[in-house]
Amino acid sequence: xxxxxxxxxxxxxxxxxxxxxxxxxxxxxxxxxxxxxxxxxxxxxxxxxxxxxxxxxxxxxxxxxxxxxxxxxxxxxxxxxxxxxxxxxxxxxxxxxxxxxxxxxxxxxxxxxxxxxxxxxxxxxxxxxxxxxxxxxxxxxxxxxxxxxxxxxxxxxxxxxxxxxxxxxxxxxxxxxxxxxxxxxxxxxxxxxxxxxxxxxxxxxxxxxxxxxxxxxxxxxxxxxxxxxxxxxxxxxxxxxxxxxxxxxxxxxxxxxxxxxxxxxxxxxxxxxxxxxxxx
Length: 280
Description:
By secondary structure, the protein is an alpha+beta fold. The chain has four helices and ten strands; from the N terminus they run αββαββββαββαββ.
């Protein structure tokens, strides 16, 4: 009987020790996980609820409450124009906003990618204050072979005849002009692929509108695509046919003939010219 009691006591102590060991291991793992989560939260900093889209939205799509939801977002990495409140994204009684730039699922909604409530996603929403939209006719050569996209920057060259010169000349007339639309679209996501545009719409000042209108009426316009990160400003450029071919105009050399004066004299039956100094 005592032997059985002893065995039971030893077994109980063994089970109790094993349970304590397992509990210590679980508590240790839990503490490690808590420390890791705490470190991650400290690294991220405070979180803010931000509205994101739950599905891909294309240019011109209206945004509804069913298309968005809120997720925590690090405040230190929060875009300045992100929407954090429902009343800001969906004002009470207002019409929905419209997408200006294509957005993928779970992308934060930024004010620069949507219109104001009830506003149309037209060209007027993309023009800066005091700027105007002007359309330029292009083809496969003058339109950079279809590689133009809205928001690209281009230089504008004019080619035509100038009074008093032989042949045609080409001149750089505008630099750093921003495109706001290609043909009839202002979407710049490139989902439609490369297409040969017939017209491009640029954002320019009223003075530039007058210059471009005059240039388009008196000659041909061609566009030169500027690199995305190129902040340089092109210098004035003038090229004519002679300069292109390296032909130098010959200067006419006029040699002034020496002036002579004379009087006629008679010597008997002969009449001869006698040189005298010129007085006038």
